[in-house]
Amino acid sequence: MRPRKASARALSTELSIQEALRRCMQQAPLPFAITRGAKHALVYANVAFRRLAGITNGDALGAPISRILGGNEGQVVSELLDRALTDGIELADERIAATDGGASDWHCSVWPVIADNGSVEALGIEIREAQPADEALELQRQVAEQMLLGALRERGFADDAEAGRRRAAFLAESGRLLAESVDQSSTLLALTRLALPTLGAWCMVDILEEGNAVRRLGIFHPEPEKQRLAQQLQVTWVPEPEDAFGAPAMLRDARTIAITDNIEATLAATAHSPINLHILRQLGIGSLLTVPLIARKRVLGAITFVSAQRNVAYSPEDLQLAEDVAARGALALDNAQVYDLALVLQRSAETANRAKTAFLGAMSHELRTPLNAIGGYIDLLDMGLRGPVTENQHADFARVRKNQQHLAILITEILNFVRVGTGHMPYAVTDIKACESMQHAVYLVEPLFEQKGLFFDGVIGDSSIVARADPERVAQILVNLLSNAIKFTPAGGHIKAECTARPESVSIRVSDTGIGIAADKQEAIFEPFIQLRESLSNRESGVGLGLAISRDLARAMHGDLTVESIEGGGARFTLYLPRAAEPQKGDN
Prior knowledge:
It is a single chain. By secondary structure, the protein is an alpha+beta fold. 51% of the residues lie in helices and 19% in strands. It contains 15 helices and 17 strands. The strands form four sheets. Strands 2-1-5-4-3 form a five-stranded antiparallel sheet. The N terminus is likely disordered.
């Protein structure tokens, strides 16, 4: 709504100026008139001019000035008007000799009224008789001149202000469009449609594809009937490398091109078929303005604006606006292309990840069956069912069994990872006591504390704290955290556990005095197949899935798993779980 109000104010200001000028000129003592066109048809005459020319009614309006004035005076005035119209210059106090011996000579002044496009729109004429100077009349004449020039300047200022406001409003709207969309086609096309009222009658957009192949993204005309022609033209009009405008021209020289002359010849060379040329003429071809779409020093395409009239020169303001439109459009196009590429890469990565997960799941199932068979046959041999077994053979069987069990654990980890990642892991969520869950996990790994020479400082916390979670999955997470603490804490170190609660969540922490984790690896350790020690010689037992599985399990139960650590200063892992609702009074 604001642009309409601003336009109305500008129009009101111009009309007020014109009315004030008309009233002043009507009663001015010096003859004053306005003519239009090459024949200098009279469109306005004040009282003094009517008296001078002998006009008694309004029939003279529209007649050539030479016929109204008649004689030598009419001919000379017409010649002066021709000069002012052709050259666009002001003529001051041109002397015209009187043909009647008893009459005084005239002094004629002419002012061209310049239109927005630079052409002469009308001519103002003032005639006074050559006589001794009358200071009052001369002062009034000067005032009239200044009022006329001032009115014309005011009109120019109002037009400039309105044009500036329209440009600012358009650029603000284009910025909003760019911020709302990452689709390369719709955003760029909306920008070009928005620019049409300012820069031309219709426009076309070209983009560059792989190998600098040019694709005409769209042709847009604001009139519905002509838009149907534009859509038809878009199908048949394919850009060629030698085209004088559009993206082909920008590939040769990425600078703004304005074509205002020889439009017909340009069309004939660029249409590429009589049918296309016919449609182009129906659309209306005037001056052409092509601006490049450039982002990060790379030409992405071009926008070509087509004016409604031929031989119309684009102003510096038009060129600046077109380049501003192109700059914003290029930014949108570049962002959209990057976004589209990111989506493609993301889909490729997701597809590869699904294939990897499926492969791991299939291979793990295939490996588990022979491993179980190996374990079974080792037990049979160790029991002596195939014959007597020596002590050395018992020791060998124990080593084989230990490695078989280790491989079975690794395969179980991979299968758990696959199930969690594909959403096939079942959860039986119920109320669990946090400290009891921690004590149960400690019980499962307790022999390892003594075996490693570590001190467990106990479980600290309120035994009444209750969380909502699957007890088996919580035990799996806590055993993994305790196992890691034992694994990475040197002999003589300490490990402790703690349970706390907030209104909405329960926290179960496992802390150690081990080697700690560098800050740049504290997120990486939750990624699949990542371990602190990556070399083959130092790699710990396992495949690096424990923490990845534990975090996925925690998040699947609407919780989380985090770490705090200083390298060389131990680590603290915290399992967050939703807190169970407080029992209502009277509940059993």
